[in-house]
Amino acid sequence: MRTFSELKKNLKKDFSLLEHKKVAILGDTSTQLLYQAIRATGYDKGYNLEVFEADFNQIDRQIFDPSSELYEFNPEFVIIFQSSHKLLYSYNKMNLNQSYSLADERIEKIKEFIHVLQVNLKAKIIYYNYPEIDDAIFGNYANNTTLSFLYQIRKLNFELMNLTTSQRNFYICDLSTIQNQLGKSVMFDTSVYINTEMVLSLDALPVIASRTIDLVAALSGKFKKCLILDLDNTTWGGIIGDDGIENIQIGSLGIGKAFSEFQYWAKKLKQRGVILAVCSKNTESIAKEPFEKHPDMVLRLDDIAVFVANWENKADNIRHIQQVLNIGFDSMVFLDDNPFERNLVREQIKDITVPELPEDPADYLEYLYTLNLFETISFSELDAERTKQYQVEAQRVDLQKKITNEDDFLKTLSMTSLVESFNKFNIPRVAQLSQRSNQFNLRTIRYTEADIELLAQSGKYYTFTFTLDDKFGENGLVCVIILEKLDEMNLFIDTWFMSCRVLKRGMEGFVLNTIVEFAQLNGFKNIIGEYIPTPKNEMVKDHFKHLGFQEIGGKWQLELSEYQYKNVYITKK
Amino acid sequence: MDAEKILKDVNEIFIDVLDNEDIVLTRESSAKDIEEWDSLNHIQLVVAIEKHFKQRFTSSEIQNWKNVGEMCDAIAAKQNQ
After folding, report:
1. Closest CB to B48 among A5, A189, A201
2. In chain B, N or C terminus with fewer CB closer than 10 Å?
C-alpha cells in the first residue's frame, strides 16, 4: 500500500477522463485528510470523485436540515464516519449505571439518519463501523457486563451488521477489521489526534480510503468475478512435473498446511460465486492428476470452470479463459508465485489484477486477506452454481464445433425458458444481475433489491424474468425486462439486460416475442426502446435495429401491427 | 549527524510532503514563509520527520516549534540522548 504522502501526489493529476461520482463525507471528527485520501485513491481506481466534505461535527445539521449543503450537493454516496473516540466521549459523560443503553441509542440515531437521508436523496449510505477501544475500566470483566465500553462498542458493531438486513441501500465499511489487520498502534496516532482533530493515523488513511472505494466500485457494478490460479508453488508446494504426485506439498504437515488453507480459501470463493480457473505451464494430464487422485487436495476438477495447462504464453492462455467466460479482464485476478509470469501478464493484459504474492507461501493468505479483492454487495445461493454453468458452457462450445449449421445446433439443444414477473424468489437474483450486467445492458440503470421491490409494487411497470435451460443443464435466470407504461398506446423498455452466457441462442428473439405478445394482449400499439452507451455495452449498439425497430429521434420504435414473430428454438415452460 | 545534514534531510522531507521542489529551508524559515505549510500539513511533516529519524516527539514539543531551526535542534537533541 502506498503511503499517504505518495498517494496525495495523485491530487495534482488530470481527473477529467475518469468516471465521475459524487460522494459526501460526514464525520464527527476532522475528515480533511480522509477526503484527500479518498479522492486520490479514486484516481488509482479510475474515478473522478467529486467530494463534498461537511465541516466536522455537522452530521446532524447536514442530515436533518432539508436546506443543507448536503442535499444541495445531491451525492450518489454518503459516507458517515462517527468515530470510536467520540462514542467513548459520550460514554464518559454518561452515568456508569446508564451506559448499558449506549449502543441501542446510537443504533436508533443511525436509523433516523438512514430514514431522513433516504427520504431526501437517492444515495447509497456507507457507514464506517467502530474500531474497538478498551478503556480498561473492567479488565476482562468487560465481557461480563453490559455497562463496559467494550461490551457496548462490540454490540454496536454487531447491531450494525443486523441493520444492513433491514435497511435498504445501507452498507458497512469495516474499519474494525482494518484495525485488526493494522493493529491499533498503526490505526491511531496520539500526536495526530492531539494536534489535529483526526482519529485516523496517516498510515491508516490509504487503507481506509481503499476499502471505501472498493465499496463505491462494487455498488457501481465493478467487482472481481474470476480467480485464475497457477498450480506449482501457488496451489500446491513443489513442481508436479518434476516431483511427482507423491512429493508435492499439501495436507496437514509443514508448508503443506499453507497450500491446503489457500485451497480452502479458493474453494470458499467458488462457493460464494467467484469463478475459478487454472492457468499453468504443465502437461495437461499431469497437471490434472492431483485434482483427480491426491487425497489431500481440497480443490477438485469440478471446482474449476476452465482448466488450461500447456506450454504457451500465460497471457494468451488468460485471453482464452476470458473468451470462454466472456467477462472483462478488469474482473479477473491472477495468482502466480513466479514474478516473471506476473510481470508478463501485467504487461500484456492491462486491466487484470495481479497481486504481488509474497515469496514465502506461508504468507500468501494473510497477504491476500489484506487486499480485499473480492468485494461484493450481494450474495444468493445461485452464485454457488456459477462454476457448473460455465463448465456446461464449455461442453456446448465443443458440441457447436461439431455441428456447423447454427439452426441444427440450436434445435438439438432442446431449450426451454420459464417466464415470470418479479417475485420474492427471483428479486435477489434480479438485483444482483442488475449490478453485474455491463455488456448486454441497453440502458445500464442499476437497481438494488429495495428499488426492485418498490418497482414491482407500482402499477406503472411490467416486469419479466427469463430462465434458459437446455439438455446440458440450467443457466438459471438470464434475462430481465422492465417495461414502463408511458400511456395507453406506448410501452417503454426501461430495462433489458441479459447474461452474455446465452448469446447466439435466439434468446433475444424469444424475449421480444414474449414482450410483443404481452403488449398486444393489453392493447398497446408501440414498443419504444433506448440504447444508452457506456464504455462496456457497445455489443448492443445495434440491438434494436437488428430486431426490426425503427429509429425515431434517438430512440427506437416497433409498431406492433407490423411485427413478424421471430423464429426461435426455445419453448416456454 | 551534524546540523547541516539534519537541515538537508528536513528540507527533502518538506519538498516531498508539500510536493514543492522549490522549497529551500533555512534555520529561520517558519510557516509564514512557506505557503503550503498549514496546520494540516504540519502534522504530516512531523509524522514524516519522526519516521525518517526514527524518533518520537511529544505533543507539546510539536506545538512549540517556532521555526525550522528549533525543529532541527529537537531532532539533534534526541539523537544525542
Report:
1. A5
2. C
